[in-house]
Amino acid sequence: MKVDSQSFEDWLAKADNDLKAAEAILAYYEDPPTDTICYHCHQVAEKTLKAFLVKAVGEIPKTHDLIELLNLCGQIKTQISDLREEVETLNKYYIEAKYPPDQPIICPTEEAKTAIEQAVYLSKFIKDLIKD
Q1: CA-CA 20 to 30 A from 50: which of 11, 68, 110, 131?
Q2: Measured at the alpha carbon of residue 34, what is the angle toward residues 33 and 37, in degrees to the nearest 5?
Q3: Predicted local distance difference test score (pLDDT) of residue 84
Q4: Residues β-bridged to residue 59
Q5: pLDDT at residue 64, rounded to an integer
Q6: Element (H, E) at 84
Q7: CA atoms of 112 and 105, how far apart (whole Å)
Q8: CA 132 to CA 129: how far, in whole Å?
Q9: Cβ–Cβ under 8 Å, residues 19 and 120
Q10: By three-state DSSP, how is residue 59 classified?
Q11: Are 50 and 69 in contact (CB under 8 A)?
């Protein structure tokens, strides 16, 4: 899908909002809905990777698969491939956290905290590349 290359900032703003939501949910609740936190962390990664593609090539694929997005970004800047561990972890939270599963999702609070840390790291990494 072709997009205006300047709209990468809009994608980053949306990603930042997802990160704020994840952090706020974790801070607000004594027993937070960790699946929702992890879903927002997936969204941070997806929107940040798409922002990079918008800035670099002016188009994005219609996918929510973070591994596919990482591979596309890695073809443009190879160091993005260093995010594979974070992407593989966050990728599982899209479908599993968005819809009621056949098996209950067990996502301890520590896992949600790790997801936030990974989303923060990925976001900063990509934003630093976009600045260059």
Answers
A1: 110
A2: 100
A3: 97
A4: 2
A5: 93
A6: helix 84-91
A7: 12
A8: 5
A9: yes
A10: strand
A11: yes
User: Could you give all domains of the chain from N- to C-terminal order, each with its CATH number?
Assistant: 5-131 (1.20.120.330)
Whole-number Cα distances in Å, 98 to 62, 70, 105, 129 = 17, 21, 11, 30
Residue with the two structure tokens 């929702």: 36
**What does the alpha-carbon distance between residue 19 and residue 56 come to, in Å, rounded to a whole number?**
23
- 18 within 8 A of 40, measured Cβ to Cβ: yes
The pLDDT score that the predictor gives to residue 13 is: 96
Amino acid identity, residue 116?
Answer: I
Q: Nearest-CA neighbor of 7 among 66, 59, 62?
A: 59
Q: Contact, 73 vs 80, CB < 8 A?
A: yes
